[in-house]
Design the sequence.
């Protein structure tokens, strides 16, 4: 039976993970070649393979170009809702980040670990883009969203939190008020704080949530909650649900501040991405023009 549009999903996650592993292996295997002075590389048996126009070096550059073009599809997915059939925004972002993590490794292989001229500018810009992308992912997941990637409203967050508290109470066989008291974590609003303070507060919240989950596990285990619920799985489920509830509570308190930092992040991320794009286009154009390829 042919798949409907609703069944079609972005499925590049595992191949990208495999690609990252392969790239690491190539970089490690070529270490002896990459540390040689340029004048001595021509005498290495690996030169025909690992030089920029070599049997491995040039395909690495072509693949890097294809992945770089692919990365620009993510902004299109965000902008056009008609592309929702290709997968959720969260799934697209995961693949976007995985692909971006592979780019520096591919560029390093293609450049034979020599970053001069335009390729050096492109590599530096790409490293900044990758680093900022990791920060962007950290901020993105701290804005509550549905499975489709659509941001939740405050009413939807409250509804989800109440449902989680009720589920925890039923799992542990305790009253709702007791669960609410147990899950309460002090976390001040930071809507008017600066970028540094907001990032520090987000990290602090992560640590508080981890400690609270650890303490909850110990407390419920000591009180016999797991036995009343019937089995150990109930305790694990309750702690998992508690983490979700505490995370939602913290995200709701930090929502305005997180949005503010996220807007600043976009301002910093895009110029470096465009710089990398220009550097890549110039490099490819020059290489093709001078004929420094084995397919011409």
Sequence:
């Amino acid at each position: 039976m042919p798949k409907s549009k609703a069944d079609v999903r972005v499925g590049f996650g595992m191949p990208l993970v495999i690609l990252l592993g392969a790239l690491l292996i190539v970089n490690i295997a070529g270490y002896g070649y990459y540390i040689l002075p340029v004048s001595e590389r021509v005498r290495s048996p690996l030169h025909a393979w690992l030089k920029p126009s070599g049997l491995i070096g040039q395909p690495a550059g072509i693949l890097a170009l294809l992945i770089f073009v692919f990365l620009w599809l993510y902004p299109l997915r965000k902008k056009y809702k008609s592309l929702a059939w290709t997968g959720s925004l969260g799934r697209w972002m995961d693949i976007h980040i995985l692909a971006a993590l592979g780019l520096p490794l591919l560029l390093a292989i293609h450049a034979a670990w020599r970053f001069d001229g335009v390729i050096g500018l492109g590599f530096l810009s790409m490293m900044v883009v990758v680093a900022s992308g990791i920060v962007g992912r950290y901020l993105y997941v701290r804005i509550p969203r549905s499975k489709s990637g659509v941001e939740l409203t405050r009413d939807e967050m409250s509804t989800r939190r109440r449902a989680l508290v009720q589920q925890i109470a039923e799992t542990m066989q305790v009253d709702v008020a007791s669960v609410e008291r147990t899950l309460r974590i002090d976390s001040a609003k930071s809507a008017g704080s600066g970028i540094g303070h907001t990032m520090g507060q987000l990290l602090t919240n992560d640590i508080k949530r981890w400690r609270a989950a650890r303490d909850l596990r110990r407390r419920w285990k000591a009180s016999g909650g797991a036995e009343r619920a019937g089995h150990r799985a109930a305790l694990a489920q309750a702690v998992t649900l508690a983490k979700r509830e505490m995370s939602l509570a913290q995200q709701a308190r930090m929502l305005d501040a997180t949005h503010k930092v996220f807007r600043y992040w976009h301002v910093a991320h895009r110029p470096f991405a465009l710089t990398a794009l220009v550097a890549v286009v110039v490099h490819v154009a020059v290489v093709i023009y001078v004929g420094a390829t084995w397919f011409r």
About this structure: Residues 232-290 form the longest helix (59 residues). The radius of gyration is 25 Å. The chain has two domains: 5-147+265-290, 154-257. The CA atoms of residues 34 and 112 lie 6 Å apart.
